[in-house]
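[INFO] parsing input record for DUF2620 domain-containing protein
[DEBUG] input buffer:
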Amino acid sequence: MTKILTGGIGKVEVTRTIGALGLDALDVTASSDIDAAMKLRAGQADYYLGTCHTGAGASLGVLVGLMGSAACHTFGRSVPDAAEIDTLLAEGKKVFGFSMDQIDTIAPLMARAIAARG
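[DEBUG] output buffer:
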């Protein structure tokens, strides 16, 4: 099972949105950013989805610092398509940030792409 941690100001909404999809291959849990970084580094979690008002600042600040920028990607306020998400996952990105007003669109896209990777 793939473990996704959610963080930032919309972590509960992201957790609920992904949970409502009923993807059995995913375990989604709300977390703090520091706890998420430690779990990702220890192999106790696979991905982190963080939210803030811009999708580029507070959603990833701690994770970029502790995981390194190579593991992180921010969508900011843009909405990716499935192909862009697949490319980022194939490149090894584990940490993603996006804005609060994009949760209903980006969280399901991310969840489905991650679940499809097994």
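[INFO] DSSP finds five helices and five strands in the chain.
[INFO] shutting down worker
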